[in-house]
Amino acid sequence: MSNTIKKTALDRKLDKIRDLEESGKLATKLTNRTVRKIMANKLAVFGTALFLIICILCFAAPLFTQYSSTAISLRDRTAPPSAEHIFGTDQMGRDIWARMLYGGRISIIVGLGSALGAALIGVTLGMYAGYKGGWLDKIIFKVSDVFLSFPQMVLIIIIVALVGQSLENMIVIFILTGWPSMYRMARSKVLSLKEAEFVQALRAFGVSDVKIAFKHLFPNTVGPVVVNITLSTAMFILQEASLSVLGYGVPQEIATWGNIINVITNAGTIRYDWLGYWWMWLPCAIMLILFVLAINFIGDGLRDASDPTQIG
Fold first, then answer.
1. How far lies 162's CA from each of 47, 154, 165, 169, 249, in Å?
2. Nearest alpha carbon to residue 152 among 185, 122, 174, 123
3. Model confidence over 122-161: pLDDT tens digits?
4. 240 and 170 in contact (C-beta within 8 Å)?
5. Rounded Cα gap, residues 133 and 217, in angstroms
């Protein structure tokens, strides 16, 4: 009598998946599927292209303008768009196009740097405290409650009034007020997985809590974390612009998109005729809107591609 056991169709499929996983081809297939889903999302592709174009324009600004963002020319004050100044000049004779490009650097650095810093703190605390539990998790959870109990813009204005205005302070303040949402997201993901069978098996083999949290559970949060970073970047850029218009943002001598738009409120008589001097704020406002839309399109595309309920 033969000892060979006839395999069912399900057994053959499982063997095929095992072989793909052992050869490393399964991860490649999943990555390719994610890329295909993003490429199929026309808004995500458009957002990525727009994001790259604006970043190249801003971070390679000397290639696209001959002017400095701080060069003053009183003879050319409030000059309308022309061949010499394609977007005109402001009330101090500074080239608007140059200020938009150089100011975009600062706005992007503030937004992306703050989002990455908030993610680093929030995800680290959420992963470890959420898995460890106990008094550590309770304390951090209560601290995050305190931050989330205040409207974020109000809390930012209070802290700016206490510590003063500077580029470094703005990034630190955004990180301090932005980490609780990242922490909550990472913590909820860990809580949903910490009692899973593979985690219990790791505990039984004596794997340390740190290794379980950051090596085995963290990969399950990468998708939501990346999406949250993109959306937080857009949020921080808008908040910086709003604070600059209110007079609580980056100091006025530093060109940012918010400070450029702020011309309609602090330019003396210009603020009473801001439609007549549209070139001072409208092109920058359009670039800000396009950049934020691009980031949101990218975030939506990443969210759809990383959503397990959408995988097919």
1. 38, 13, 9, 11, 13
2. 174
3. 999 998 888 888 888 899 999 988 888 888 888 888 888 8
4. yes
5. 15
DSSP assignment of the chain equals ---PPPPPHHHHHHHHHHHHHHHTHHHHHHHHHHHHHHHH-HHHHHHHHHHHHHHHHHHTGGGT-SS-SS---GGGTTPPS-SSSTT-B-TT--BHHHHHHHHHHHHHHHHHHHHHHHHHHHHHHHHHHHHH-HHHHHHHHHHHHHHHTS-HHHHHHHHHHHH---HHHHHHHHHHHHHHHHHHHHHHHHHHHTTSHHHHHHHHTT--HHHIIIIIIGGGGHHHHHHHHHHHHHHHHHHHHHHHHHT-SS-TTS--HHHHHTHHHHSGGGGGGTTTTGGGTHHHHHHHHHHHHHHHHHHHHHHHHH-GGG--
Q: Which residue in the block uniquely carries the two structure tokens 């993901």?
A: 189
270 within 8 A of 186, measured Cβ to Cβ: no
Residue-wise pLDDT for 242-301, tens only, equals 888 788 888 888 888 988 888 766 655 455 555 677 888 888 889 999 999 999 998 888
Partner residues linked to 126 by β-bridges: none
Give 49's Cβ-side CA count (13 Å radius).
8
Q: How far apart are CA 203 and CA 238, in angstroms?
A: 44
Q: Which residues contact 57 (CB under 8 A, 6 or more apart)?
A: 64, 101, 104
Alpha-carbon Rg for the chain, nearest whole angstrom, is: 25
